[in-house]
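Before the break, one more example. Copy the sequence into your notebook; we will annotate it together after we see the structure.
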Amino acid sequence: MSTTIDDYKLRGLTLINTSQRYIDTDSIRNEIASIGKNLIYIYFIDLLFVYLDKSWCEYVEYILDTIDYIQLHQEDLHEFSELANHLLTLLNEKQMYLETINDDELKSFHDEIEKHCEQIELLNQKGELLLPNSETDSNENEVERLLEAINRNYDNLIIKTKARLDNINKIHQTTPAKTDDVRTIE
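Here is what the structure looks like once it is written out:
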């Protein structure tokens, strides 16, 4: 006759019952429970370190991304500042040249100034993009100050040039054309 699983089960339970009479099983159970709790604590601590390590890595990555963003923003601000200062210098030179220019060259001078309109518009757009990120607690915002100065100088230059052109056109319109006053004798 072959032994079945039930036979092994019965023999195992019999051994356990016999051993419980001679061995203090409560202390063994307590030790096993303690080891189990410690294993759970160790597992929990390992999970915590894995999570903290992951969180720490993400935090460090976030900081590095922020530093990269700040560096790019600083480069954009520097580029904007150089372009704006160059344009301001150019507009100031044109302003001084306007005072000395003769009337014959005024129309070409006006056309030359209007060519800078597109450059100013692009600079305004770039400045508007930089403006929210460059705001500081102080009232002095470099981007805003440069944009205002450029627009003010450009508008001022266009207005003065246009006013002089209008004056020249009025003078030419009010001055009658000279005709030879020749009388014929009959």
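The radius of gyration is 45 Å. The chain has a mean pLDDT of 76. Try to locate both features in your own notes.
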